[in-house]
Amino acid sequence: MPDGKPAGVRCLQLSPDNRCLLMGKQERPVVCSNLRPAEEMCGKTSEEAFAYLEFLERCTAPTVVNHG
Ligand code: SF4
Fold first, then answer.
1. DSSP state, 63?
2. DSSP letters of 8-42?
3. 2, 15, 33, 45: which sits with the fewest CB atoms below 10 Å from its CB?
4. Does the pLDDT value for residue 27 go beyond 90?
5. Which DSSP letter does residue 4 get?
6. Is the pLDDT of residue 1 over 90?
7. Contact at 8 Å (CB) between 50 and 61?
8. Dihedral sign, CA of 8, 14, 19, 25?
């Protein structure tokens, strides 16, 4: 994706059956190639994987500080 992939946005290179269309190609982002799947991250279903992603999003969301 030319401007990067925002969190929570489906990658344009993800096929309808959730496979990376860039697998094995030079255009695949380094961050994607370096990511190693783990059972904790992937779960046993796409729903479990999505729930874990949402958990990570909440854990890494910027904190809003009110200096009031
Ligand atoms: S591995 Fe990277 S390029 Fe491939 S579908 Fe996922 S986010 Fe997109």
1. P
2. TSPPTTB-TTS-BTTTTSTTS-HHHHH----HHHH
3. 2
4. yes
5. -
6. no
7. no
8. negative
The single-letter code of the amino acid at 12 is: L
Give me ligand 1 centre to Cα 16, in Å: 13
Strand partners, 14: 20
The CA 66 to ligand 1 mean position distance, Å, reads 36
Residue with tokens 């479990």: 48
What is the model's pTM? 0.72
Q: What is the mean pLDDT of the chain?
A: 89
Is 12 a pocket residue for ligand 1 (Cβ < 6 Å)?
no
In one-letter notation, the amino acid at residue 51 is A
